[in-house]
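Q&A log
Question type: sequence-to-structure
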Amino acid sequence: MTGLSTSLEDYLEAVYFLCRDGGSARASRVGALLGVSKPSVSAAMKTLAARGLVSQERYGRITLSPSGVAAGGEIAGRHAMLKDFFTSILGMDPAAAEADACRAEHAISREALARMGRLAAFLKGPARRSALAAARRSAAGRRP
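Response status: OK
Response body:
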């Protein structure tokens, strides 16, 4: 991915969501979303800007570069897939799934995430229903 720390990924993801809704973000909204101070947001934005992911007007709007949009979208996509897996497949409480997805999105490999996605699609899809029906028919045929 981008080689960002967990913290910087969280900042980038927050900016991504805020920019998606309004085209740009403000440090105060990023801070409120993450529960951090404006100076913390400013330091993170400087680091993300140095990496070419965001730009910020002095005391103003924060926008994403094309590479920032791509990286933020990837982080947000990992988060969404994990949260969906935790709630729809594992049956976790949405709040607990949100917290676990937030932690796991930073550590999980692309391969593991892709495999989880395929497993979720199978478990949610018609292939699972067909496999279960076939197993039931097979089991019924073996009964004495």
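Response note: The CA atoms of residues 3 and 9 lie 9 Å apart.
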